[in-house]
C-alpha cells in the first residue's frame, strides 16, 4: 500500500500534496503504467485522511492524464511515455503500452439510472425559449453588445426579485443580487468576500462537491452531523465556525426540512458575532409537491446574516448554468468595494432571454407544468416499485419535496455489494451512505431514487432484476 507523510504547516492542501506524491511516483517509475491504485475508502483509511481528499486528488490526476477511471474496476495508471515526463531516470521496464486486458471500456449508458440528476430534454420549453431569443436578437442589439455590470443586468435582477417576492414571499433589493455562471463560481466569490481565514461548516451528509470546492480553495471547514440537530448551535460554537453552509428547505440527500426551532437558533448563533454568516442553498425548493413552499431562512432573517443562493439548473435545465446569490447589505457594500472588478460570467444573450422568460410569466407557467409532470412521474415510479416483487422489502420516504426520494431496502447485503451487483446488470443506484463523510453515522440500506431524468423504458425490468439479485443474495 502506498504510504505518504503529509505536511500541515506549509499551507498546501492535502489533496494537492497527495496529487504531487502520486505524480512523482508515476514519473520515476515507482508506480508503473497499468498499475491499479488503491480504492478511495481503503486509501483514505490507510493514510488517515478523508475519502473526499482522495477523490479530489484522483480527479486531478485524471484531468492531467496520469490515471484513468474504469467503472467497476477502479483507477489505473495511464501509459505515459518517458520522453514526456522530463524526469531523469524513468525506468523503461515499468512503462507498458496497454492497460490490463480485464479493463473494460467506460459504460456509455445504463439500463436504468436511479441516481442521475440531469434534466429530461422533453421538458425544456424550446419553442418559447427560441421565440424569446429571436426577439432579443432582433430588438436588443445595442444592449446585447453593451458590457453587463459585474453583478448582472438590471432587468434580470429585477425579474428574479419579483419572482422571489411572488413565489417565496421574499422582499429582495435587485441591487443585492449577483448573477453568476453556476453556484461553484459564486462560492468562489463568497470565499474571497468572507475571507480565506474564515472557518466553514458543511452538512454531513451533503453535496459531495461543496467540501471539494472549499478544500480546493484551501479553506478550513468542519462537517456538521445533521442527526444531532438539537446540538448544532453548540457544535458550531465548539468548532469556532464562522460560516455555516446549509440547505434548510430541502436538504440533499435526506430530503428533510429544517424545523423552525433550529432555524431560529441558527439565526441567533449568526447574530451573536459580527463576521458570522449562513449560506442558504435553496436548491430544489421549487418542487415541493405537497403543500406550500417552505419559507426561506433569508425571509425571516432580521439581522442581515443570511446569504441566499439558488440556481435555474433544476427548474430549467442542468446545462443552463445561471445561478444567483442575494447578499445582505453589509456584504453587498463590501462586494462593491473589493470585487466589483469581476466581469459577469453569464452572457448578455442568456441574461436578457431569461429576464424576458421570467418577467412575461413564462417561468411561472413552466414551474406549474413541471410540478404536475414530476408529480405524475414520481407517482408512476412509486407505483411500479410498490406493486413489484420488491414491495415486501422496501420502504419509501421523503417523497413530497424535490426530485428524489429515499428507498430503504430490507437486506443483509452491504450497500457496496448491492451497488456492485446492480452495476453488473446495468442498473445504477446510489446509497445514502456515499454522501456521508463519517460513514459510520449513515443508516445502511437506504438508497436515493432521483427521478428527474430517470427513464421509465426499462424500469419494470430493472426492478425485477433487483428483486432477483436480492433474493439470490439472501439465499447465498
List the helices and strands and how they pair.
Elements: H1 14-27, H2 40-47, H3 51-63, E1 67-70, E2 74-77, E3 112-113, H4 126-139, H5 141-144, H6 154-168, E4 177-180, H7 183-194, E5 199-204, H8 209-216, E6 220-225, H9 232-238, E7 243-246, H10 260-271, E8 277-281, E9 306-311, E10 323-326, H11 329-338, H12 348-359, H13 362-386, E11 394-397, E12 404-409, H14 415-424, E13 427-428, E14 430-431, E15 446-450, H15 459-475
Parallel strand pairs: 3-13, 5-6, 5-7, 7-8, 8-9
Antiparallel strand pairs: 1-2, 4-10, 9-10, 11-12, 12-15, 14-15
Helix pairs in contact: 1-3, 2-3, 4-12, 6-12, 9-10
- SSE sequence, one letter per element: HHHEEEHHHEHEHEHEHEEEHHHEEHEEEH
Q: How far do the termini sit from each other? A: 32 Å
* Secondary structure: number of strands: 15
Low-confidence stretches: 81-108
User: Tell me about the biggest sheet?
Assistant: 7 strands, mixed
Largest sheet: spatial strand order:
4-10-9-8-7-5-6
* Secondary structure category: alpha/beta
Whole-number mean pLDDT: 87
Amino acid at each position: 500500500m502506498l504510504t505518504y507523510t503529509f505536511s500541515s504547516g506549509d499551507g498546501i492542501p492535502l489533496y494537492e500534496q497527495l496529487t504531487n506524491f502520486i505524480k512523482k511516483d508515476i514519473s520515476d517509475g515507482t508506480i508503473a503504467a497499468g498499475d491499479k491504485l488503491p480504492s478511495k475508502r481503503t486509501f483514505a483509511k490507510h493514510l488517515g485522511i478523508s475519502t473526499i481528499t482522495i477523490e479530489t486528488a484522483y480527479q486531478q490526476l485524471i484531468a492531467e492524464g496520469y490515471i484513468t477511471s474504469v467503472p467497476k474496476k477502479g483507477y489505473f495508471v495511464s501509459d505515459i511515455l518517458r520522453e514526456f515526463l522530463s524526469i531523469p531516470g524513468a525506468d523503461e521496464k515499468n512503462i507498458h503500452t496497454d492497460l490490463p486486458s480485464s479493463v473494460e471500456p467506460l459504460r456509455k449508458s445504463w439500463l436504468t439510472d436511479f441516481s442521475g440528476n440531469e434534466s429530461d430534454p422533453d421538458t425544456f420549453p424550446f419553442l418559447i425559449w427560441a421565440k424569446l431569443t429571436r426577439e432579443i436578437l432582433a430588438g436588443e442589439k445595442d444592449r446585447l453588445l453593451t458590457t453587463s455590470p459585474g453583478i448582472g443586468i438590471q432587468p434580470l435582477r429585477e425579474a428574479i426579485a419579483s419572482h422571489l417576492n411572488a413565489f417565496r414571499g421574499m422582499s429582495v433589493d435587485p441591487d443585492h443580487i449577483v448573477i453568476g455562471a453556476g453556484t461553484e463560481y459564486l462560492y468562489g466569490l463568497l470565499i474571497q468576500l468572507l475571507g480565506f481565514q474564515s472557518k466553514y461548516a458543511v452538512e454531513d451528509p451533503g453535496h459531495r462537491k461543496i467540501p471539494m470546492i472549499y478544500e480546493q480553495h484551501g479553506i478550513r471547514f468542519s462537517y456538521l452531523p445533521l442527526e444531532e440537530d438539537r446540538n448544532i448551535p453548540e457544535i458550531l460554537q465548539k468548532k469556532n465556525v464562522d460560516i455555516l453552509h446549509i440547505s434548510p428547505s430541502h436538504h440533499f440527500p435526506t430530503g428533510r426540512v429544517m424545523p423552525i426551532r433550529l432555524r431560529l437558533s441558527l439565526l441567533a448563533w449568526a447574530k451573536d458575532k459580527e463576521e458570522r454568516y449562513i449560506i442558504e442553498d435553496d436548491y430544489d425548493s421549487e418542487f415541493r409537491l405537497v403543500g406550500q413552499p417552505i419559507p426561506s431562512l433569508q425571509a425571516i432573517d432580521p439581522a442581515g446574516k443570511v446569504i441566499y443562493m439558488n440556481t435555474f439548473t433544476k427548474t430549467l435545465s442542468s446545462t443552463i448554468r445561471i445561478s444567483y446569490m442575494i447578499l445582505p447589505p453589509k456584504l453587498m457594500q463590501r462586494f462593491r468595494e473589493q470585487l466589483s472588478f469581476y466581469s459577469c460570467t453569464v452572457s448578455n444573450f442568456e441574461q436578457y432571454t431569461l429576464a424576458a422568460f421570467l418577467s412575461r410569466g413564462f417561468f411561472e407557467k413552466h414551474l406549474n407544468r413541471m410540478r404536475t409532470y414530476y408529480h405524475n412521474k414520481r407517482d408512476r415510479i412509486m407505483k411500479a416499485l410498490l406493486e413489484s416483487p420488491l414491495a415486501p422489502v422496501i420502504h419509501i420516504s421523503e417523497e413530497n419535496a424535490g426530485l428524489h426520494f429515499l428507498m430503504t431496502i430490507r437486506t443483509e447485503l452491504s450497500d457496496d455489494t448491492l451497488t456492485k451487483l446492480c452495476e453488473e446488470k446495468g442498473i445504477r443506484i446510489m446509497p445514502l451512505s456515499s454522501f456521508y463523510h463519517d460513514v459510520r453515522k449513515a443508516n445502511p440500506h437506504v438508497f436515493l431514487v432521483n427521478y428527474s431524468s430517470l427513464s421509465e423504458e426499462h424500469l419494470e425490468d430493472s426492478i425485477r432484476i433487483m428483486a432477483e439479485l436480492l433474493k439470490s443474495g439472501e439465499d447465498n
